[in-house]
Amino acid sequence: MTPLQPLAVLAAEQKSADVTDWPNRIGWIVGLLLFIALVYWLMRQGWKWRGTLQGDLPPLPDAPTEQGPVKLELSGRYHGSTSAGQWLDRIVAHGLGTRSRVELTLTDAGLTAVRPGANDFFVPAEALREARLDKGIAGKVLTEGGLLIVTWAHGDKLIDSGFRSDHAAEQAEWVTTLNDMINTTEGTAR
């Protein structure tokens, strides 16, 4: 027997380990996919529940057919609506919680938000309360002054709606024009 022979015997006797334990791996993947589906389902149920809780919010008004001359137009993103002053209390009733592209139009009649793929809405001029630049609204935080926040009354609730223009420089003009319009509307109401 040569000295190499015991090594050959040892090598022949050893069995290499399985590289992949497929049943175990497939079990983990299926379990992970089921967990993700469960989390998604729970989030969807929470969204629907929030909409149910906000069911007392009256339907949104329809835009009048004759709105008058256009004062300002803005193209950008709608980031959602919250209870006024509570930037994390998202309102989802009537589609107000759905983020989307938006075409904003300001006229003497009010503010019209046309949203492709989501519910459009109209805010009458007499319902407008304030406009300001802010840094965040439910789930969206930007640099200071990055969002145009419009506060408006709907039923007995004050709502903050957040918009971001494709051209951020025009947002300051919107704040000035909206606040002037609000002050004028309040002055004529007295």
From TrEMBL:
InterPro entries: PH_bac. The chain crosses the membrane at residues 26-43. Pfam families: bPH_11. It comes from the Bacteria. The keyword Transmembrane helix applies. Keywords: Membrane, Transmembrane, Transmembrane helix. Residues 58-178 form the PH domain. This is PH domain-containing protein. It comes from Streptomyces endophyticus.
